[in-house]
Amino acid sequence: MSDLIGTRSRNPRRGTHTTVADHMPKAHRAHMQWTPGKLLNWAISIGPATRDVVHYQLTHKPHPEMGYRTCLGLLSLARKYGNDRFEAACRRALSINSPTRKSVLSILQAGLDQLPDSNASGATDPLAPTHANVRGPKYYH
């Protein structure tokens, strides 16, 4: 009687490994179903800002696979808050040069995605202080 649980073939290339999907935990197998193309298609279906945030995650890591977990976290935020709010939060995250999941989450939690976009309308930032010491952009011309 053998206590053999499973076998796998040896990779002929030295220093590399093989992965058998059946031997992986269910959650890990779910991650394997996502590819950069599938993640970008999902992002495009929401909007251009979401696409740009997801693209940033996939291209600013040493390997695209490292961005998958972040992108799946973004996907869960879109499901929780809805596509319109999520797209607005991504737009705001891009406008402050912080296209990270943490920034998008912070924007959604604070409701900043529901405020008018100051960059689009030319309006001043509603959170900026207004007092005599603030010179404004005209001062520097």
Summarize this, please?
The chain has helices at 26-32, 36-46, 48-59, 64-81, 83-95, 101-110, 118-121. The chain has 141 residues and is mainly α.
The parts where pLDDT drops under 50 for at least 5 residues are none
* Computed Rg: 22 Å
Total number of strands? 0
Instruction: Estimate the strand proportion.
Output: under 5%
The structure class reads mainly alpha
Give the SSE order as H and E letters. HHHHHHH
Q: Which term fits the overall shape?
A: elongated
Q: Count the helices. How many?
A: 7
Mean pLDDT: 81
Structure write-up:
The protein has a domain at 25-113. The protein has 141 residues and is mainly α. The model has no long low-confidence stretch (mean pLDDT 81). The longest helix is centred in the middle third of the chain and has 18 residues, at 64-81. The protein starts with 25 loop residues before the first helix and ends in a 20-residue tail after the last helix. Helix 2 runs antiparallel to helix 3, helix 3 (48-59) runs antiparallel to helix 4 (64-81) and helix 4 crosses helix 5. Helices cover 53% and strands 0% of the residues.
